[in-house]
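Submission checklist for the structure archive. All mandatory fields must be present; incomplete records are returned to the submitter.

[x] Identifier: Co-chaperone protein HscB homolog
[x] Organism: Stutzerimonas stutzeri
[x] Residue count: 173
[x] Sequence attached
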Amino acid sequence: MGTPCHFALFELKPEFELDLASLADRYRELARQVHPDRFADAGESEQRQALERSANLNEAYQTLKSPSRRARYLLAIEGHEVPLEATVQDPAFLMQQMHWREELEELHEQADLDGVAAFKSRLKQAQQGLNDDFARIWQDSERRADAERLVRRMQFLDKLTQEVRQLEERLDD
């Protein structure tokens, strides 16, 4: 593995629960140090390294600040790669997904902005619940399958939240 672990880059222990404010502060501090502009007068190879370090830092930060990406990354560094698009053996959650999609469709048809806001806040609660569940079980190696299932659920909610944002923008116009 050529690039350092995302957690090591920020001098953090690989844990799910992070202080996002101090992660952001540390990111800004490191970003200043590796910013390619600081190497404008340096040689070509030094400039290329600065660009690489900057790109790695950005990737690490984007991964760690997102709960679902952070959860997926934690599993990956332990050798449990969770595919992004995987067949989900999770019938209960599939039903929930269908229900949410239908509800979102109705909100769209009715152009119901208040309904969208309420839907969004319920999604946020569901996401928080998944984050809490993942934090509780991820270190228990007996529960890897549960952790992976939670990551898939988190990824779905991320996608749905994105769709809700797009719907809000369309209805706002």
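[x] Structure attached
Curator remark: The CA atoms of residues 68 and 151 lie 6 Å apart. The chain has a mean pLDDT of 89.
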